[in-house]
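Late entry, zinc ion complex.
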Amino acid sequence: MSDSPPAPAVLGIAVPSPLRRLFDYRPAGAPPAGGWQPGLRVRVPFGRRRVVGVVLECREASDLPLSRLKPIDERLDETPLPPDWLWLCRFTARYYQHAPGDTLHQAMPVLLRQGRALEPRTRERWRITPAGRDEAPASLTRAPRQAELLSMLRQHPHGLVTQAILAQSFTRDQLRALAAKGLAERHEEPRTAGDTTSAARLAEPALPLNREQAAALAALHEGLDAFHPCLLHGVTGSGKTEVYLQLIEAVVDRGRQALVLVPEIGLTPQTLARFRRRFRVPVVALHSGLTDHERLDAWEAAASGRAPIVIGTRSAIFTPLARPGAIIVDEEHDGSFKQQEGLRYHARDLAVARAHHHGVPLVLGSATPSLESLQRALSGDYRHLRLTQRASRHAPARLELVDLRGRPRRGGLIPPVIEAIEATLTAGHQVLVFINRRGFAPTLSCHACGWMAECDHCDARLTLHRQPPLLACHHCDRRRGLPDACPECGSGDLRPLGSGTERTEETLAERFPETPVHRIDRDSTRRRDALEQTLAEVRRGEPCLLVGTQMLAKGHHLPHVTLVVVVNADAGLYSSDFRALEHSAQLLEQVAGRAGRAAHPGRVLVQTLHADDPNLRLLAARGYDALAERLLEERRAAALPPFRFLALLRLEAPAEEAVNDLGRRAAEALRAHLDARGLDVDCLGPVPAPMERRQNRYHLQVMLGADRRSRLHEAGAWLVAWLEADPAARRVRWSLDIDPQTL
Ligand code: ADP
Ligand code: ZN
Ligand code: ZN
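Prediction complete; structure with ligand written out below:
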């Protein structure tokens, strides 16, 4: 019985490398108690390096003679990494046609990549010994702090955790000194989940639900033990979060765990505080601010089941769960769920796969669902749960279109809009001005000859900044000083063209000198906490002006804002990207959702040069849902997602010719293959990427489209194999983007 199974002859190991294959090694050293199995980390020689890999296959044979296989250096784990995590990584690598080694690597915390052990974390506690309980020995009269420490321990017969002791300004040396004298002793105790019985679980009572919320929650309760995908489609402020909280309560009640994904912008201290206020059980948050140790801790807490609630941004989808009970994706339409480089996964789509695998409910929540999720809800694949009422008294404000044509603009704003701002401030309320461009102006131009400042490395204009004064490229981050004169004609008449956040801020500050103006964009919030500080001040409710980019559009609760101004709504209207209008409508609706959240109704003024545009008019008159239905019809007619599946081959290199040549040959080879196999897949291109030159590299793309996902994957797999085998492809950076979100 105690004999471990015989070691396999070959270990197929996923090694961090861009190659889409496993590498074979021979096992070495003592096998783990449970025998060799997938999920064990090992250190192996790889080229000239030593790397951490993960065993994925245990086999008796290899394509190479066994004598040619190298043995592993060492085994790092006694037990395999969590099986649900391993399943998800394998699924991800297969679905996104990505190298297994790189997938696993990206999906694990940095410390695990480096070979650190994944062990249950313990907690250190210090307790007084029987000797210490008696009179303080004479030896302590010369060490007053030790004497104080001893008397503190005396008051806590069950001991104190080290952190609590250190928090009282005692030191580890003092603890060790007491231990050496036999007066105190150290204990390691496992961290436990704490008390999760019903009475102790909730720190704050749940809100009584309104009718729609109650119906949604009841529907969710019906399917707690099965894959049960739902679209929670509710206007901003309709209480979706309250529904999540009460679902989580039921999940935790059953001793299960809930995983909550939120957009990058959504994981604010406010959101976290809301979850932590409600529950007494640990809420583990995974965000970019964690140290490597904290991240590993959080991972372990989730994997061991110690943390009943895990909340995080995109990469948190790769958090293992010992007892999965539900997966929730808030703002499921948000672009930050899609990773745009390397492993180009979509966390929402992985959440669907994962919930299906675990057989647990899935909630996708949004006021402005993606057309993908909306279509699945309309077709009955997802249960469509609607929340149409706001918890506060006011319906969400409608958009009012304001025609920009032929009107003078100052800082991007026309006179009637400035008057509306003035009226709102006079009434004692706050105004949010949304402008999707940071910097002072989108570019600097010569009034004499028409020259415009452009980036040397990208097909893009340079943005003019005033604080500090410089020209910056927002695509490659190159910076330049301001020229004194036009480099083309020598004229000194250089003027900013258009408006960014800095210019609008400046205009408003001049026009309303008595009112504070807060600018919120990536530049003004570089310092940590800057955003939270500004928002805290805004929430106090004094009249003020907020000028900001999409950082302001989502998540934040701004109860005193009653007027929202959108400086320019036209960005997404005539884009070559078929998703641009969907994304732009979602953003407008989200921005509009900031208005009138509390006691007063709100207004949303949307400036546009295309006030007659039918889509914009539909959005303004009937809201996102109506526009989304029209867009779905258009997508169906044009055979675009969600009615068709796409994959995009992206190619880039410094040399234009190398990119063109490889793109052309790859597309030709693929077309020949598709013809020969009679595969019903389209191959379009190669065509230059929308911004052909970026960071001095040429970008090209080839689009694949199919009615059936399996066909698309077959074609993609073939294309990837062809590229891996082509010697010229090594000089070009290429990647296959499955379900691309931007073109
Ligand atoms: P959403 O997530 O849909 O934007 P929230 O859950 O943040 O909406 O709710 C908006 C506001 O309404 C919050 O202040 C919340 O506390 C409040 N709220 C939600 N549900 C209820 C309810 N049933 N009764 C009273 N207030 C509620
Ligand atoms: Zn000039
Ligand atoms: Zn650039």
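Residues 614-638 form the longest helix (25 residues). Will revisit in the morning.
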